[in-house]
């Protein structure tokens, strides 16, 4: 007869993950969405990853580098929202596509209010942010129906981003205190942008 196998019982081993920049950025993203990009320290980040703080320096230089990566991540996430709106509106009239674009921008800001402000900077030393910003530019260009990125196109894109940012920023601060519908005001804004910028 063969030897009987004895199955030893015991506590299962805890799954271990190899620490890398992606895991660090994922953990930082979760903290930033809860406390803001400037609302946590490297100690907080290490605790979330269940490691000691010095271990982080094998992968990052300092907290500033983490914050720059978060800025790029936020911009990429905004781009994802905007691209999804474009994909779902491919066969719709240009006005409806533009309305969906603006609504998606506002939705991103409302979903990620703690990290939204980080998309406004332009840290040239961060290659990830630079690439994400270039993608944002192309998406905005497409939403406005601009064939060529000339001087006029740049002005239109700036007007679009500045106007949407202004609205969502005031909305965040509960700055619309009168009884009129904020939703209706946003629809007015989108209509005016379409007539004065897109259709011009």
Automatic annotation (TrEMBL):
<dbReference type="InterPro" id="IPR001647">
    <property type="entry name" value="HTH_TetR"/>
</dbReference>
<dbReference type="InterPro" id="IPR025996">
    <property type="entry name" value="MT1864/Rv1816-like_C"/>
</dbReference>
<feature type="domain" description="HTH tetR-type">
    <location>
        <begin position="24"/>
        <end position="59"/>
    </location>
</feature>
<dbReference type="GO" id="GO:0003677">
    <property type="term" value="F:DNA binding"/>
</dbReference>
<feature type="domain" description="HTH-type transcriptional regulator MT1864/Rv1816-like C-terminal">
    <location>
        <begin position="99"/>
        <end position="193"/>
    </location>
</feature>
<keyword id="KW-0805">Transcription regulation</keyword>
<keyword id="KW-0804">Transcription</keyword>
<protein>
    <submittedName>
        <fullName>WHG domain protein</fullName>
    </submittedName>
</protein>
<keyword id="KW-0238">DNA-binding</keyword>
<dbReference type="Pfam" id="PF00440">
    <property type="entry name" value="TetR_N"/>
</dbReference>
<dbReference type="InterPro" id="IPR036271">
    <property type="entry name" value="Tet_transcr_reg_TetR-rel_C_sf"/>
</dbReference>
<dbReference type="Pfam" id="PF13305">
    <property type="entry name" value="TetR_C_33"/>
</dbReference>
<dbReference type="InterPro" id="IPR009057">
    <property type="entry name" value="Homeodomain-like_sf"/>
</dbReference>
């Amino acid at each position: 007869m063969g030897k009987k196998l004895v199955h030893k019982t015991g506590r299962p081993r805890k799954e271990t993950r190899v620490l890398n920049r992606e895991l660090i950025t994922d953990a930082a993203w979760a903290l930033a969405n809860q406390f803001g990009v400037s609302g946590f320290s490297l100690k907080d980040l290490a605790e979330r990853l269940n490691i000691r703080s010095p271990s982080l320096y094998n992968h990052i230089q300092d907290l500033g580098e983490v914050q720059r990566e978060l800025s790029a991540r936020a911009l990429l996430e905004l781009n994802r929202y905007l691209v999804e709106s474009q994909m779902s509106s491919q066969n719709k009239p240009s006005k409806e596509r533009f309305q969906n674009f603006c609504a998606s921008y506002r939705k991103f800001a409302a979903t990620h209010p703690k990290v939204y402000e980080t998309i406004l900077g332009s840290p040239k030393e961060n290659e990830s942010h630079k690439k994400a910003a270039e993608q944002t530019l192309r998406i905005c260009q497409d939403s406005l129906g601009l064939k060529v990125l000339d001087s006029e196109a740049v002005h239109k894109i700036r007007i679009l981003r500045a106007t949407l940012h202004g609205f969502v920023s005031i909305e965040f601060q509960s700055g619309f205190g009168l009884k009129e519908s904020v939703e209706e005001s946003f629809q007015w804004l989108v209509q005016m942008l379409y007539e004065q910028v897109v259709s011009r």
